[in-house]
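Before a colleague's protein record goes any further, I have to sign it off. What it holds is a sequence and that sequence's fold in token form. My question to you is simply how this chain folds and whether the tokens agree. Thanks in advance; the entry in question is below:
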Amino acid sequence: MALIVQKYGGSSVADAESIKRVAKRIVDTRRAGHEVVVAVSAMGDTTDELLDLAGQVAPIPAPRELDMLLSSGERISMALLAMAIHSMGFEARSFTGSQAGMITDATHGAARIVDVTPVRLREALDEGAIVIVAGFQGFNRDTRDITTLGRGGSDTTAVALAAALKADVCEIYSDVDGIFTADPRVVPLARKLARVGSEEMLELAANGAKVLYIRAVEYARRHGVLIHARSTFSSGEGTWVLDASKTSPLVPEGDTMEEPIVAGVATDLSQAKITVIGVPDVPGKAADIFKIVAKSGANVDMIVQNVSAAATSRTDISFTLPKTDAATALRALAAEQSEVGFESLVHDDQIGKLSVVGAGMRTHSGVSATLFEALSMAGVNIEMISTSEIRISVVVRGVDLAEAARLVHTAYGLDGDDEVTVHAGTGR
């Protein structure tokens, strides 16, 4: 008997029929003799609808009250799922994040988990019940307030529960069959990976792959949690996320760890670019700029500084950041323009980032040449370049991103024979 943690996303519990289908899968797992803990997201687009509703009644909703509102979506899902399981003759108990012992810091809207004390969950499991936990939410001991974990919070909830309960596996269910060499909505001929290393998965998640969120992957890697990314709509094997050094009796035998040169191509349309024009090319100015950006709360990704113009001794510095952070960063920089001494700011929110990820890059040459040649043949201009040991990222025009991803995917020999089916159309 294994202890299995399962997570179901919004598209998996979008309506009553979907909830009953999920309940049947959970019951089948229980019938097989396993203990089951489930983390569940809000139904369909409930969270977005609640955000829209909050915006209609208050231009800037109070963060504490917004968390109270948004956490209700998962409470609806958990209760309905428990009811569906009860109707199938099995005992199920639903728990909010605070009841489940998800202790967080006090940051509303993007809280981080600081401790998990699943005492009530363990008691329920020992009494033979299936445990259903509201994802995306927790509780701060100091303020005694409900908090939410931000986007992807239900993935993080599931992984944190798996770590605290010492689960054998954390199954992350979505509407695709696993982790693919590219987003199948962008690259229909993407291939499913049987396994992917946690280091590669971190890079893919950080650079736009939405099937798993980076915080969940980070938490799993830190605490040694085995992740199995699967589809709610099929019973086949998904993708196992683990290090080559780790083994598990649950992973199919004879399936050796894949380490292709390139594991996947990730795309991201959620970023914007800010260019600070005419920065005095003297020591300390870059530090001044990025201190201002950091204080605004923006998370900077890629940075490029141009060569200083000999005539003016000034340079331009460009960086990318989430579109949602751009307005705040621009206001903060504009307020300090005279102090820093730059000439102007340019904001561009029509960019796309393409990233090529693979552990094999460490030992194989020519990976970057293949990328740049494929983009050149397609007439795609590269605006920025960033690399790590196992990743190359480029910024291109947003309108070129999808076609560029398909061409690069083909150039690395990653195309499969058939188009991928995305059952609910979201990738989540």
